[in-house]
Amino acid sequence: AFSALVLVLLSWLYLILALYVRIAAGAPILTKRECLTRNGKHFWQYKFRTMKPGKTIENQDPWIPGGYFLMVSHLDELPQFFNVLKGDMSVVGPYPEQVESAEHIQKKLPEFTYRQAIKAGLTGYAKVHGKYSSSKSNQLNGFLLYPELLLCTGSEHYCVNIEGTAGAVREQEKIIRRKHERTIKNQNACS
Description:
A two-stranded antiparallel sheet has the order 1-2. α1 (2-9) runs antiparallel to α4 (80-86). With 191 residues, the chain is mostly helical. The radius of gyration is 18 Å and the shape is globular. Mean pLDDT is 76; it is low at 148-169. It contains ten helices and four strands.
């Protein structure tokens, strides 16, 4: 219901942004990435296009005119409310990883899969506090705060996204934290 309200209230902004991207850079207006959400489910995450076709952030001058502003202002992420409406994402949760990236990260940091215990979100702790510079290890630490933060606020989101009793979740969180601490120690020992 919340995402539908946002889509209706901001429909004028969606129209302006879509027209801007179309005029500034042509088609396509939206990009889609195959990402992971709760329980490893694959879904298509939608965004307004900010880069030239075939370009990545590593390329020199990858942005369409105004694309960098759309990215840093997060206006490019507004189409993700369609993902929330479809049930692929929630408003708050760990930011979704692309499938290929997640597979690569999980080889180096196996605990990263624990992020899939919660539905992917538009915004979350690691995104708000870490910005784009967060290491995957720090993002995982941010994820591990969800049960604690959501219990403190009494949010129903906690009950919807993490199945099981609060006690079981706290126990799982302790196990995850111990495994993660061991992984960090092992990585530091190898460095």
